Each structure stands twice: as C-alpha cells, then as structure tokens.
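Usage

Read records sequentially. Each one opens with the input sequence:
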Amino acid sequence: MTNKFLVGLQSSFLLTKEYKRLWPYVAPSLPLFLLAMGCAIMVGLLDAMMPLAIKLFMDTIFEHKNLLEVLQSLPVWVSPFLSVLKPYESVLASINLLEKAFYIPVGIVLFTMIQGVFNYTATVANSVVRVDVSQRLKQDLFAKLLNYEAAWYDASSSGEVISHFCGDSDTATAGLTDILKTATIRFFSVAGLALTLLGLSPQLAFIALGVLGTIVIPITFSRKYLKRVSEQSLNANTQLTIPYIEALQGNRVIKLFRLQSHQLGLLSQALKVVRKVSIRMAQISGILTPLMHTIAGLGIGLVLYYGSILIQDGTLTAGGFAAFITSLILLYTPIKSLGNSSTQFHLAFIALERVFARIDRPIEAKVTGTVPLDNLQNAIEIQDLSFQYRSHLPKVLKNINLSIKKGQSVAFVGGSGSGKSTLAHLLLRLYDPSEGAILIDGTPIHEIEEAAFRHLVTAVFQDNFIFHGTLRDNLLLIKPSATEAELKQALANAYLLDMVENQLPDGLDTILGERGVLLSGGQRQRLAIARALLRNAPILVLDEATSALDNESERMVQQAIDVLMRDRTVIVIAHRLSTIQHCDLIAVMNHGEIVETGTHQALLAQNGAYAKLHRSGDVLVV
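and closes with the structure output:
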C-alpha cells in the first residue's frame, strides 16, 4: 500500500511538473485561456441550477406553495443570493406560483440556452488555445530538430521524426487542454451539485457521495496499465507511418522490383500491432466503464430506497426528492465516462512527456567557435585525424595526415568503404573528429564561427537534396540577394539555362516537386552545381559530383566544374578517373587510411594501389 501511495505521489508530482512546463506555451494566449476556463466554470456551476428549477416546479404543482415558501425551501447555499429579496418578502408571499407555473419550463429553456452559450464560448476559446500551444511546441521541437547532430539523423527514421516532432504535440495539447476544460466544468458541476445534494437532504447526500468516493479504487488500479498501454499505442502509431513514407519516397523502386506485396506486408504487420494495442486499451478502459455504471447504479438505487422512506415520514418533499434525483443523475453522468477520459489523459500525458524529452535532449557537444575567419589564405591541414560513428564501432578513419594548399585540387580515391565520403563530411564539419583535428590557416575548424565557416565551404554531393518549391526558390535559398542576372549566369555555367528556358513550362518559377522529382538525375546534379556557383565559397568539396550523369551530361558538367574550380581550393571525392586525373594531388585510401599520395603520373609510376585501380579501367571502382 505504501509503494502504491508513493507511485501515485510521484505521478502527481510529474503531472504538476509537466503542466508547469506547459505554462510558458499557454501564457501568450492567457486572455483566451482565462475566458475558456471562466466559461467552463459557469457551465459547471449552472448544472446545479437545473435541479433547483425542477424543485421549484414540483413544489409549486404538488405542494401549492407560494413563491416565498418555495425560495425558503431551497438549499442553504442559495440563501446569500436570496438575501437581496428580504425587503420584498410580503410581496413574494402573495404570489401564487400555480397560476404562472408555465413560466418555469420557459425559464428552464432560456437557462439551457444561456448555458449553451457559455459552453460554445469555452469550446471555441479552448480550441484556439490548443492550436496556438501546439504550434508553439512544434516551433521549439523543429528548432531543436534542425540542430541535432548528423549522427542522430543516421539512427532515426522518418516515421519517428514525424510522430515525435509533429504528432506528439497535437496529441498532448488536444488531450490536455480538452481534459482541462472538461475537468473544470466537472469540478464546478460536482461542487455545485454536491452542495445542492447536501442542502436538499444531508442523509441522502452522505449515501450518494459515499458511494461516489469508491470510484478512486478502480481508477488507481488501472492507472499504471493505462500508462503503459498508452505508450505502446503511441509507439505503434509511429511505426505505422513508416510504410507510408517509404511508399512516397521509394515508389519507383517499389514498382521497379515489384515490392508492392512486401510493402503491403509491412503495413499489415504494423496494423496488427496497432490493432493489438488498441484492443488492449479498449479492454482496460472498457473495464472501467461498466464499473462506473455499476457504482452509479448502486448510488441511485440506495438513494431511491432511502428517499422513499424520507418522503413517507414527511422529511423530504416530492419536489425536493425529484431535484435530488436530478442532481444525482447529473453528478453521476460524467463519472460513468471516466474510463474513456482516463485513456485520453494518459495518451496526452505520455505524448507531453515525449515532447519535453525531445526538447530537453542535449545536443551532442559541439564547440561553437569565435574566430571570424572569412577566407583561406594558406592551407588546410589534416592532423592525426581519426573518426568512428559510435564508440563501440571500429574506426572509419585512422591517423589521416595531409596538407592541402590554397588553390590546390586534391582528389581522394579508393574502394567503397575506404572512408572517402566520411572524410568529406568531416571537412564540411557535418561530424567532428574522434581524434586529431582539421585546421584552416592554423585554426581548428571547430574554433571558427559557425556562420563564417559555412561561408568558407560549399559542396556538391552524389545525392543532392532539392527542396519542394520552384527552381528559383532552390537558388535563392543559397543566396537570397541574387539578381535575375546572377541566377541565369549560375544556371548557364552549370549548363542548365537552356533546359530551364526551353523545357520547363514556367522557367525559373516551375515547381520542381518533392525532392525535385520533375528533374532528371543529371539535372539535379547541375542544379546543385548552380547553387555552389552562387555560394562562391573559397573551399569546394565535390563528393561523387558526376557519378549520376551520363557521358554527355558529365562532359557539360565537367566543364562547369572546371570553371567552378578556378581560384578555389577543391577536395574531390570520385570514382571516375576522368574526374580526378588532372588534380594537383591524389590521395589513395584503403580501410580508412591514406596509403599513397602523388600526382596521376607519379602514382602510375609507383605501380601501387592507384596503378592497380587504373588498370581496372576508366571507372576506378564500380
């Protein structure tokens, strides 16, 4: 029992903690939030007025009381509101309600309309707050996502990102704000109805409220199961998004290799897990619902039995008893839906925990430099560089040492898995070295200001990402101030302008589709080269920049690259001999180490690893 108490106390503390953390996101919408809660309070309090109207009507019809007698028989808590009528007691006593009893049903209709207006206002205001809070959470989550280290992306799936960074904020805010509004209504409704019950008949009230208190037992026992299953439900729905994302991004491969059955099988497996978890959640919440109904039925049954005794001995009027039963039914109605409410609450709370876990997740330590280096004056030095993606994995690069002088072009060649692309990523500071350092003019790159370093380097990758939007958008993202002439010059130098002007229906303003689906592989490469031309950085990294091109496209792009390489320091990662044979220096890599360096002719003369690759043909590595 002590352990259960401590667990409950801990859960309550966590709930308070998470709600406190949510307040800064609610604060900008505080006026609307207060309006929603104020209207919710009125809706709850007005619930207690309905039974009093019924008592007023019943006592008028069956007891033939005048207005003063009816008002005096109302519960004690109404007395302060009636004190203002004290000077008019003689007038009230002279009013025979029986003649105007029809006004009471009309009043009830008007009363429910007023309550409906409060309820509508609370719902709309609460919905606006919910949307605003969710959007603020998404902003913070997305800002965090954009700053995660590359290694995190390597280990994450698209489904997890969408679920954790977008879906969870909606689940959390929708559940918690709706629950808060509902809880506010129910709290004040219960409080008002409980006072009404006590005022109408203390004996019956103790029976009704005593039975009501037993609902904490099933709720307490089901809490830990609901929390666990709620977490499983969110995780299952995360996995369910993956097949859809793969269908969108991999549709061509799916069609090419007839993988429809395989992908459908993956979705079926995910759906089975979701079904299993959903049924489990329904079973748990389903147990609570009949228990709540049973408890409510027990309370009503006991009240009916004992209430009939009180009516017979004259302790309670028929109107008072009708009002009491109405209050009790209104009181028990929300109690019977606690099973579903508990499920929604645990889903929302687990989602909120996940949201703040993502926001709190420390980004891998990355030193932010202060050196405002804006150009390369002398050389790039790679000193004793080693790297491993995880501490338990073998090193991908081992003790790399190399000097790259300003204006020099250096090519890294080698077999697949030799570490070439990893080295390029380190030079671009997408990862930080495990050991050793990369220096620009004697300054370690991690000591250079982030913005300054990003203007020092640019790159063209093997698989270049094209953003959804127009071709113009994709260029202006790199240089927002670029003029029309600069955009066209960059496209011309990338041998892309003719295609843009003669083949694209809207020229620069053609929407390229997701990941540039309207462009061919070679056109995407040339667009990436045009972006690099616009960036005009002194250090250029070409990571398999021509690997996706046919011979004609490669020839045109190679000419563009030749222009791009002028007066720049260039690091080339390539398989094709035609791409690297004219470089000033070639470094041959094998198993993460540099095994040979020299010019094309010098390395051929050594008859070593490079010469062996050269003898394999124009394509060094397939």
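Summary fields computed downstream for this record:
- Residues 260-312 form the longest helix (53 residues).
- Residues 1-14, 618-622 have pLDDT under 50 and may be disordered.
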